[in-house]
Amino acid sequence: MHHYPTTGRKVFLAVNSVFLLVVALLCLLPIINILAVSLSSSAAAATGKVGLWPIDFTISSYKFVGGRHEFFTSFFISVKRVLIGVPINMLLTILIAYPLSKEAARFRLRGVFVWFFLITILFNGGLIPWYMTIKQTGILDSIWALILPGAVPVFNCILLLNFFRELPKELEEAAIMDGAGHWTTLWKLFVPISVPAIATLTLFSIVGHWNSWFDGLILMNKPQDYPLQSYLQTVIVKFDSTLLNSVSSDQVKMLSQISNKTTQAAQIFIAALPILIVYPLLQRYFISGIVLGSVKG
Amino acid sequence: MSRQWRLELPLLIMLLPGTILVLIYSYGPMLGIVIAFEKFIPSKGMFGSKWIGLDNFRQLLDIPNFFQVFWNTVFIAVMKIIAGLIVPMVFALLLNEVRHTLFKRGIQTLVYLPHFLSWVILSGILIDILSPNDGFVNNLLKTFGMEPVFFLGDPHWFPYTLIISDVWKEFGFGTIIYLAALTGIDPTLYEAAVMDGAGRWRQTFHITLPGIRSVAVLLTVLSLGNVLNAGFDQVFNLYSPVVYETGDIIDTLVYRTGLIDAQYGLATAVGLIKSVISFTLIVLSYRLAYRFANYRIF
After folding, report:
1. What is the pLDDT of residues B212-251, one digit of tens each?
2. Which SS3 state, helix, strand or coil, does residue B38 take?
3. pTM for the complete prediction?
4. Four-point Cα dihedral B131, B136, B141, B145, nearest 10
5. Cys-Cys with B44: which of A47, A56, A268, B48 at CB 3.0–4.6 Å?
6. ipTM, 2 decimals?
7. A288 contacts on B by Cβ (under 8 Å)
8. Mutation site for A-interface testing, chosen from B41, B121, B141, B240 by largest number of A Cβ within 10 Å
9. A272 close to B (CB below 8 A)
10. B29 to chain A: which residues are within 8 Å by CB?
11. What is the pLDDT of residues B119-136, one digit of tens each?
């Protein structure tokens, strides 16, 4: 039986498609705008007339950023942070999710450990005790201050353990029959068939490390140790919000803002670029990954 | 050692590194809560500083605008929660009407994107496009003959700017769960409804909405725990002293009192109150979720 859409239905579908497209573009346009500003001349950017296409196309702002030593230092600190932090996050996530995915009968301390980890998302000591603890462990001002305090992503552990529990029991039983121990079962069986979930969590971990700015800001005393987002926080957000406070149209201030606008746009775009590259690659995994890990029948 | 323990030993070894790190960096700060009851002096340390009982909590009432800050937090958080529940649901319903897979997936890819960008980057963009003098949005308003709005510098507009920009960042990502719930609805229900002569609206009201009701209830209940989380990252990156009146939230207050003014005991006391209330709400919401939606975290 075939249903021919009515006129009303056709109109709805057309209007709906246009609406969805407009909303979707609203999510992308600010990023295109910042790219366009970064590729425009300072004068054009200052008038605020740059929309989605550069005016007086120039790459001078990128050249200027390229010549900024601090920008690249912090960029590479962020890269280093991702390269060390993400494998540690993932290793710990897998090592925690596997035991906790066992039934209580096979792992008698399961309940104790589940609560031990779960409590840390429900309750925390707050900002000052957190800072003091990190200070006392003596890792302040080192890359480890950005990695160790968040090394165990408990939320990701829960997503992965739910994913593990959905796997067919027969697979594991077969592996045990063949004489596989826990380590073999984990690495040779669970991890390979959990690629979608692990890819999803890897994306989350990369994004988390790349986007973190607050820890860098307060755990690093020397600005030259800031990761990229902390550096940007100080040069873009702080700088501009102080300008917002004194809305005097002082000529000198205006000038500094004008020459800064395109440079800042370039820095914002470069900082967003790794996410813009990684996201589409891992995107196809994450929908099923999240859904399987969070909503259960 | 018994056979059972020998089987469980590898599991314990697997948990060891994570357990140590969590003990230090999550349970350590929980011990640090003693600072809230001390006149904390960093050089004397957590256990050497003078014990002053509840003085920090009494002093808390002297913080100018403490209740205003509390109210700001709840207001901003609740508005974000409500908008964050409705907008993704409506968007998912509309997206679900689309049959063209490629178009649908393209839309999804675009709307999920802002979720993955940091508030530092988005603030950089927002500060630029919302600027009252030469920002893109205000230029647009001016071409329509409207007065420019100082979105980030006007205490009246600031909270709404926060709410709308948060919805903009997160609605796409929130859509995922609803889309999953929608695909879970039995298609034969729709076929039966069509046989009975139900139009699109009737199908929506009698099949689609009841089909996603349990997910909506679940998300509503779980969001209860976030009533004191108005979004530190966003507020910190967008606010300035001119909008403290309506934009200052508990987390930003703790940051300024603790790390800027070095009133460690006081800031920890504020943080503790927030943690205790949040903890109570989360436990309550998980219990409700278990009772009404049969939801368990693991």
Report:
1. 888 888 888 888 888 999 999 999 999 989 999 999 999 9
2. strand
3. 0.89
4. 100
5. B48
6. 0.90
7. none
8. B121
9. yes
10. 124-126, 129-130, 132-133
11. 999 999 998 888 888 788
